[in-house]
């Protein structure tokens, strides 16, 4: 059986990991390669790098970062944040990324998903969707520009559109839950897994080991992503996996 | 020297990075003379069967790889590169493969609870004893594929359980295939690449 994946997410700014990662034995707390190696040693199943660089040098910095990580760390790497063109995707994949995550650019131009999938294969193309619950319309609404700008798009419909266009995986972040440490948005993922059949990575809200067990017991998602709980050592991946194993969830 | 066949497919550079990390002497090449002079060959690959065979044919590499295999040179196919070792692919039509191993490449049957592509970490179960089985038995490795190989049991070194039992490692004599990505499977994957290097060291194939 495929194992459920546990994925740390690193925010990268100008080639440095933002928010110091609080592991012992790191000589440089902002070095992406060193952090990636530490997570590999912990048993992370994959790493997501989110480029938050806000300058024009953006692309070169993240491409260099990925090339460096991929020469030292031999696990699946996904890169998102400002991936806007097929050329962006190609540069990242060539540098050693295994998947690229499209977000706002795909909402603006869904054909970008198809172009990427045709050129590189659907397995390379992740569509990242930031959503929030919109009570007035009783729906999950898509939010773009790093979770700042709501658009008039139903997240479940967008998920289906993205998959039809060639998305091989969805990375879905609940903006309502993000940063709250109150657990993953289980109803969101239950709804998503009913409407699409590609792997789904759940993101937003993880604060405790039980949040991962609840996620995998209550939904059919394939992976759980978290950032601060891992970076600050509040949870370790071996702890999470040991608990999941006890609960009968298959993990690596 | 191990030559990684360079034919414009996806994961070539990641295979090279893994060999570099292991200090295994290697180079990328599509040059027939360099390929035939190599001590061992790695055929990487992601993408579609037909497109990959066309890319090999355009570089006139099909007879070169067949000659290299017939000479006893150790050859490792990875992911799509493993599938290309077989006789026939059924992806977007019927495409002849390299024919170095007997068998066919067919779609993974989709069943409820089994998404296709088969993407993620899955466990290998050894089906016979050999150095690759020793490395990978009961170990999880990283898979990304929508098609799988059907071949005689004697060619199957290990399998992984999905909607069907998927051959994850195949071997006949000097020709080996790994359906997963050893270059993306952490330390155990690197150990598998080192095992291939051992096989190359042990082969003592006379150079052309």
Topology:
The complex is a heterodimer of chains A (252) and B (208).
Chain A: E1 5-13, E2 16-17, H1 32-42, E3 47-51, H2 58-70, E4 77-80, H3 86-95, E5 99-102, H4 104-108, H5 111-120, E6 125-134, E7 139-144, E8 149-154, H6 155-165, E9 169-174, H7 186-195, E10 200-203, H8 209-218, E11 223-226, H9 228-231, H10 237-246
Parallel strand pairs in A: 1-3, 1-11, 3-4, 4-5, 5-6, 6-9, 9-10, 10-11
Antiparallel strand pairs in A: 1-2, 6-7, 7-8
Helix pairs in contact in A: 1-2, 2-3, 8-10
Chain B: E1 2-5, H1 12-21, E2 26-29, H2 32-37, E3 40-43, H3 49-58, H4 62-70, E4 75-78, H5 80-83, E5 88-89, E6 95-96, E7 104-107, E8 118-123, E9 125-126, H6 131-136, E10 140-145, E11 147-150, E12 156-161, E13 165-172, E14 175-178, H7 186-203
Parallel strand pairs in B: 1-2, 1-3, 3-4, 4-14, 5-7
Antiparallel strand pairs in B: 5-6, 7-11, 8-10, 9-12, 12-13, 13-14
Protein model, in words:
- The complex is a heterodimer of chains A (252) and B (208).
- With 252 residues, chain A is of the alpha/beta class.
- Chain A contains ten helices and eleven strands.
- Chain A has helices spanning 32-42, 58-70, 86-95, 104-108, 111-120, 155-165, 186-195, 209-218, 228-231, 237-246, and strands at residues 5-13, 16-17, 47-51, 77-80, 99-102, 125-134, 139-144, 149-154, 169-174, 200-203, 223-226.
- In chain A, strands 1-3-4-5-6-9-10-11 form an eight-stranded parallel barrel, surrounded by seven helices.
- In chain A, α1 (32-42) packs across α2 (58-70) and α8 (209-218) packs across α10.
- Chain A is globular and about 50 Å long.
- The mean pLDDT of chain A is 93.
- Chain B is of the alpha/beta class.
- Chain B has a single domain (2-203), classed as Rossmann fold (3-Layer(aba) Sandwich).
- Chain B has seven helices and 14 strands.
- An eight-stranded mixed sheet of chain B has the order 2-1-3-4-14-13-12-9.
- In chain B, a hairpin with a 3-residue loop joins β12 and β13 (165-172).
- The A-B interface holds A 1-3, 5, 40, 45, 70-72, 74-76, 93-94, 96, 98, 120-124, 168-169, 197-199, 220, 222-223, 252 and B 10-11, 13-14, 17-18, 20-21, 46-48, 113, 115, 117-123, 140, 142, 144, 161-162, 183-187, 189-190.
């Amino acid at each position: 059986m495929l194992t459920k994946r546990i994925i740390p997410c690193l925010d990268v700014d100008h080639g440095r990991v933002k928010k110091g990662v609080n592991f012992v034995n790191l000589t440089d707390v902002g070095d992406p390669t060193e952090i990636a190696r530490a997570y590999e040693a912990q048993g992370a199943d994959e790493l997501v790098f989110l480029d938050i660089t806000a300058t024009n040098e953006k692309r070169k910095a993240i491409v260099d970062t990925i090339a460096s990580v991929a020469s030292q760390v031999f696990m699946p790497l996904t890169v998102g944040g400002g991936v806007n063109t097929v050329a962006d995707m190609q540069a990242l994949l060539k540098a050693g990324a295994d998947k690229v995550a499209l977000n706002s650019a795909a909402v603006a131009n869904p054909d970008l998903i198809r172009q990427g999938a045709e050129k590189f294969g659907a397995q390379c193309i992740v569509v990242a969707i930031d959503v929030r619950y919109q009570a007035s319309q009783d729906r999950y609404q898509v939010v773009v520009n790093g979770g700042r700008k709501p658009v008039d798009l139903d997240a479940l419909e967008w998920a289906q559109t993205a998959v039809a266009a060639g998305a091989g995986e969805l990375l879905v972040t609940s903006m309502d839950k993000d940063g709250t440490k109150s657990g993953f948005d289980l109803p969101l993922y239950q709804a998503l897994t009913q409407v699409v059949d590609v792997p789904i990575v759940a993101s937003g809200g993880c604060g405790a080991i039980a949040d991962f067990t609840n996620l995998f017991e209550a939904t059919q998602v394939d992976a759980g992503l978290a950032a601060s709980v891992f970076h600050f050592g509040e949870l370790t991946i071996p702890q999470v996996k040991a608990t999941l194993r006890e609960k009968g969830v298959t993990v690596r | 020297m191990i030559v990684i066949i360079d034919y414009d497919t996806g994961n070539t550079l990641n295979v090279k990075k893994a060999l570099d990390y292991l200090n295994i002497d290697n180079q990328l090449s599509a040059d027939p003379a360099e390929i035939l002079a190599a001590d061992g060959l790695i055929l990487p690959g992601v993408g579609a069967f037909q497109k990959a065979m066309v890319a090999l044919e355009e570089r006139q590499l099909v007879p070169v790889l067949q000659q290299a295999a017939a000479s006893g040179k150790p050859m490792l196919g990875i992911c799509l590169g493993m599938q290309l070792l077989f006789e026939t692919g059924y992806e977007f039509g019927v495409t002849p493969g390299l024919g170095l191993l007997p068998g066919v490449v067919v779609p993974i049957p989709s069943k409820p609870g089994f998404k296709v592509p088969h993407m993620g970490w899955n466990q290998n179960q050894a089906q016979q004893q050999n150095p690759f089985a020793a490395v990978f038995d009961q170990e999880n490795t990283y898979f990304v594929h929508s098609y799988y190989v059907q071949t005689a049991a004697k060619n199957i070194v290990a399998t992984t359980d999905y909607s069907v039992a998927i051959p994850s490692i195949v071997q006949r004599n000097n020709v080996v295939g790994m359906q997963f990505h050893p270059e993306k499977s952490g330390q155990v994957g690197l150990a598998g690449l080192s095992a291939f290097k051992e096989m190359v060291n042990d082969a003592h194939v006379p150079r052309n």
